[in-house]
Amino acid sequence: MNKQFSHEKIYLHLDRSSYWANDDIWFKAYLKDSPIAECNLYVELLNPSGKVVQKKIYWAQSGLAYGDMHLTDTISSGVYQIRAYTNWMRNFDESGFFHKDLVIWNPSGKKIDKESRQLRERNIDFQFFPEGGTFVTGLKTRMAFKACDENGKGLDVKGRIVDDQGKEITTLKSNFKGMGSFLIQPQEGRKYTAEVIIAGEMDRNVHLPVSQAQGVSMAIDPVEEGGLHLQIADRAQDAGGDQPYNYLLVGRAKGEVFYHKEVKMEKGHWAFDLEKEGLPKGVIQFTLFDKELAPRCERLVFVHPDDLITVDIEAEKSVYRTGEKARFYVETFNDEGEPLLANLSMSVSHLDNQLNIEKYPNNILTQFLLGSDLKGLVEDPAYYFKDDSVSTRCALDNLMLTHGYRQFEWKEIMEDKYPKIDYQAERGIKIKGKVKTSISQKAVPNGNVNLMFLRDTTKTYSVGSDENGYFEFPDFYFKDTVSVILQVANSKGKNDVWIELDKRSYESPVVKLPPLNYQYLDDRKVDVTASFDQESLSKISRIWHLKDTIMLNEVRIARSKYKFGERPLRLYEKADYELDLNTDDDELGDVLHKLEGKFHDVIVDVHDEDRYKDPFDLRIPKRSSELWDDIMNERKFSGSKMTVRVDYQRCEPVYVVDGMVTDEAFVRALPAGTFKRIEILKNGAVYGNIGGGAVCCFTKYGAFKSVPYSQGEKASKVIGHSVVRKFYSPQYESPQPSEMKDDFRNTLYWDPMLRTDSMGVSRVSFYNSRQTGEVQVVVEGITAEGKLCRGMCKYHVVTK
């Protein structure tokens, strides 16, 4: 089951936590537990409203990918979000995606409204979570709680628990981000209420769950050093049950069962100790089953890994001067001092330029060990790894009690109900769709579908449609966006069918976790970008000051207004010959006569003078709908046929009007004044004319812009993998004042493919900018054995 429904995890290491307008976001992606070794990675930028404003596709190889996003100079200030996922991850909850909220600041943009908003009581969510999921009368239970707003942001809370007779039972106070816990032993017939103060000022009464008269409870103490202490109590046996009732305790991690033990209850109680040394690391799940294999209790526990690799970053000195070359040694060794091969990413940036949303932001350790296994918003995740104090371990356990969830509910597993798989893992760019009949829209089985890239019309790919009309071309690997043409015929060779492309993979999933652009000051919401102190903003804005820019003289930009139909519909990038008819005064003639003598290898042979036989007057161009109706009434020509040869080919060319494949009679039925341009292709393969050319005509009025492509044909643009840029790092071997003047790089250095050698060492050097202050170096990655590693250091830059 784990392989079939693998829980894929993803993390992006970004070069900084905040950015400016006209800046670049550099990132490296790390993927774990992917169903395939190579796959497409989708990276999106969401604006403060949760709308996708930028999207890119990268090809992840062996769980690694890197790229960038450029921010425009007109982008608005606010809290944005980087969201990353694979096609496979779309089968599950969006909480499994990677999300990173970040500040983008535009000093030249409009000011942020600094007016705070009052927290409303109706937006507060206060919940109780009994340990193990049961609250049984007479059994002492750890009751966890969390107070948060509608988006999951924690709110401080304190208060007391009273029973229905007004007697105080205990007090409560949140430990971190609105979470906490307390012990309570419910008594028979009593009900309990929490009288609390939320966010400093707001009073509220919240009822505890009503205790059950009979049941089983499970308690685990993960705070003890070296092991886990498990206790199970059965109220029925404790009250004098007839026969001992046995249970089955199962431990799971990463979808795999690592532990199972039969629990034999004696007088309603059972206790057991588990050594942490042999347990899986990270989030593990214990479930207690009864003899019918129905889950009765469940508890999540976090076991700190003891095999994390700390990356040592050694600078040649702690203080550098502006423009000076900085040199570092990056080292990866295990606890025994043995060197490790590692694939790393390294970012170097000025701390003065950072506008941080969180004090303890997400990193590669917290994402893979914690955040990707929990549901909902986990604020300041690095807080739980800051030290090994009792208060930190208690806060982490409260997180387990309040944020735990199962990938699959046990009841669904027992009934063989598994998630519906609508999105398959992608090894490359897929081009797929369905062949249908043109009228009834029924599936066309055993059709022959041909695909051609307009960049290379010499190569054609072919596949057949299955019994349901579906077709899929093999995985492609190409950069940027390309134009393609698909042609299809049914099993009898007829092309009276249509192609419907499947573009679900390119459509962004619904945004359910948008960026949160506020924080709390007591019980008031304040915009994040408005809450930064003026000193921090002035440091950032000074580099944007006009004295550091080049002033241009007045520049006037003129552009003609776009007119309907002015952009031709075509399936090729460049024609072999082009004829402009906008200056031609002959409004009534035959447009194909215009080709005579214009190009040396385009021959126009007219055998007789053409005259119109029908009574309709085509000399005045009509509206598109009227013109289309006239021609569909099958008007005929008198006179002999006109022959056009392109490049001395024996086959006649194909005729195209505004992107629609037609015939010679159709073109000649329109007066020359209808057209503004003719383009000639020597190779008409893109329109299905193998061995012949193509005569493409474009009307002045876009007359046939709304006419669909001909049957059996489909043109489309396909988005490929994004082009990977290289980070620019200037070289100042002997820096000149003019070179250093405008060097205010926000990111001093970025290397997404840093590797340590067989000695576990990598040497890095770069030049500092003109800016002074404290600089932070962050290195994250993974070793060849799959162990996570991370390291940080700081240094100072002073003026010369």
By DSSP, the count of extended strands is 50
Fraction of helical residues: under 10%
Main pleated sheet: 6 strands, mixed
The class by helix and strand makeup works out as mainly beta
Mean pLDDT across the residues is 82
Which percent band covers the strand fraction?
35-45%
Backbone CA Rg: 35 Å
Q: Provide the low-confidence segments as ranges.
A: 544-552, 608-640, 703-709
Which outline best applies? globular
| Tally of DSSP helical segments | 9
Span of the ends, CA to CA? 62 Å
Task: Describe the SSE topology.
Blueprint: E1 9-14, E2 18-20, E3 24-32, E4 38-46, E5 52-61, E6 64-70, E7 78-85, E8 98-105, E9 117-118, E10 125-130, E11 141-148, E12 157-163, E13 168-173, E14 179-184, E15 192-198, E16 202-207, E17 216-221, E18 227-234, H1 235-238, E19 246-253, E20 256-264, E21 269-275, E22 282-289, E23 295-303, E24 309-310, E25 312-315, E26 319-321, E27 325-331, E28 342-350, H2 364-369, H3 390-403, H4 410-414, E29 429-437, E30 448-453, E31 456-464, E32 470-476, E33 481-489, E34 497-501, E35 518-521, E36 524-527, H5 528-531, H6 534-541, E37 577-580, E38 602-606, E39 611-612, H7 624-632, E40 637-638, E41 642-646, E42 654-657, E43 660-662, H8 664-668, E44 675-681, E45 694-699, E46 713-719, H9 737-740, E47 747-755, E48 761-767, E49 773-783, E50 788-798
Parallel strand pairs: 2-8, 24-50, 26-50, 42-45
Antiparallel strand pairs: 1-3, 3-6, 4-5, 4-7, 7-8, 9-36, 10-11, 11-14, 12-13, 12-15, 15-16, 17-18, 18-21, 19-20, 19-22, 22-23, 25-27, 27-48, 28-47, 28-49, 29-32, 29-34, 30-31, 30-33, 33-46, 35-36, 37-44, 38-41, 39-40, 42-43, 44-45, 49-50
